[in-house]
UniProtKB/TrEMBL annotation:
<protein>
    <submittedName>
        <fullName>MFS family permease</fullName>
    </submittedName>
</protein>
<feature type="transmembrane region" description="Helical">
    <location>
        <begin position="238"/>
        <end position="257"/>
    </location>
</feature>
<feature type="transmembrane region" description="Helical">
    <location>
        <begin position="110"/>
        <end position="129"/>
    </location>
</feature>
<feature type="transmembrane region" description="Helical">
    <location>
        <begin position="81"/>
        <end position="98"/>
    </location>
</feature>
<keyword id="KW-0813">Transport</keyword>
<dbReference type="InterPro" id="IPR011701">
    <property type="entry name" value="MFS"/>
</dbReference>
<feature type="transmembrane region" description="Helical">
    <location>
        <begin position="171"/>
        <end position="192"/>
    </location>
</feature>
<dbReference type="Pfam" id="PF07690">
    <property type="entry name" value="MFS_1"/>
</dbReference>
<feature type="domain" description="Major facilitator superfamily (MFS) profile">
    <location>
        <begin position="15"/>
        <end position="453"/>
    </location>
</feature>
<feature type="transmembrane region" description="Helical">
    <location>
        <begin position="50"/>
        <end position="69"/>
    </location>
</feature>
<keyword id="KW-0472">Membrane</keyword>
<dbReference type="InterPro" id="IPR036259">
    <property type="entry name" value="MFS_trans_sf"/>
</dbReference>
<feature type="transmembrane region" description="Helical">
    <location>
        <begin position="337"/>
        <end position="356"/>
    </location>
</feature>
<feature type="transmembrane region" description="Helical">
    <location>
        <begin position="362"/>
        <end position="381"/>
    </location>
</feature>
<dbReference type="InterPro" id="IPR020846">
    <property type="entry name" value="MFS_dom"/>
</dbReference>
<feature type="transmembrane region" description="Helical">
    <location>
        <begin position="141"/>
        <end position="165"/>
    </location>
</feature>
<keyword id="KW-1133">Transmembrane helix</keyword>
Amino acid sequence: MTSEEPQRSGFGGRFAAPVLIGPALNPINTTMISVALVPISQATGAPASVVIWLVAGLYLVSAIFQPTMGKLADLFGPRKVYITGLAIAGLGGLIPLISPTFTGALVSRLAIGIGTSSAYPSAMTLIKDQSLRLGVETPQILLSGLSISSLVTAAIGPVLGGVLIEHFGWQSIFLVNVPFALVAIVLVCLWLPADSTRVAGSSPRPAGIRALDLPGIACFAIAVTSALFFLLDPGGRLYWLVPIAIAAAVILVLWELRQPAPFLDVRMLAHNAALTRTYLRLFLVYMCIYLVVYAFTQWVQAVAGLSSEAAGLMQLPAAICAAVATVLVSRSSRVRWPLVIAAGTPILGGMLLATVHADSPLWLLLVVVALFGIPQGLASVSNQAALYRQAPGAQMGSAAGLSRTSVQIGAIVASSLIGRIFGPSASDPGLHVIAWIIVIIAVAALILTLADRALRDGDRAPATTQGR
């Protein structure tokens, strides 16, 4: 498709701009905080073991609300869900100005996590709806652009966060959400089609509040919250949450099997093994990425003695490599080999990270960081392309939300491991343990990717307007 064809087919700049800008908010918030943990701890007096909840808290609410917002978008329309979420995120960014405390920062992060959870599943649903509305194939460049938007902002998050903190204080990384959300809301209102124009049959029709499946959402929230609180408890005292998580998960499955329009379509996931493997692949690869993002930035500040701004700038090689990798695969419909490389590269990166110590030369640190930018670019674009082919069209919002939940859970598990391994402070031995954990996880991701026959079939099948 030429550069003029998306415009003529209804996927031009006026449609693309608001679709692409909103999903950038969640990833930029998830990575900006990585260079703010030490400054916030110093400013508020909260210890490192408590401050890590600024990371985990956003991931926790995002893990729950991404599929919830996707379900809402499927049922009630993506445009209105998108706008509501952006408004919540913008208001959440104001809280640390009113309450410059750790509690204020945590409440702000939770609000931002809930609000930004609407963007990605709404954007994917908007794209699918537009494709059905116009009866044309979705341009590959638009799907790639959605990945690029999220990826680039995630990669520059530590850099931007470091600069903002250095010059405007730690509250500025929260306040930046306000203008961002306002611009996105204006563009959505001006340029995106109204929900009333959705094609009949593109989504299940709501039948009152029961269509939302509140019991299913509640069971899902209890299962995820219990499991993640257990994982994030460094002392292991919350072991009693494990049976609660298991019981909630069992009840969730039994309940959803009886629902005509379930929140979590268990039957679809069981029968759509390719989509389930995509979720697992996202979990494994992004766990590797976030182990580096959070562990390395803490290490260079606590052990190497760098400032927040310098720690953020250290992430530039990752941003550059991620951008290059994204551009290289953005116009291709092939997904298998990009995903193989995305799974394999962290093996080399982890081995190099295991050699790093306080006196390591700067070039080695930059090489390690750069290597982990490659899987960021490749995994984002190619897994999204796989998901767009594999997910049922009428459940695109829910499916897209679950893909982000996979990423968020990977990040939470990474945070839990870092907290348990680093303890009170980052260290060389702790960083080396994390490095070998990355290698093990990456090997598992590589085996899963190589063995996935659906990826080979997908390389021969173009994306369609209907999904599966």
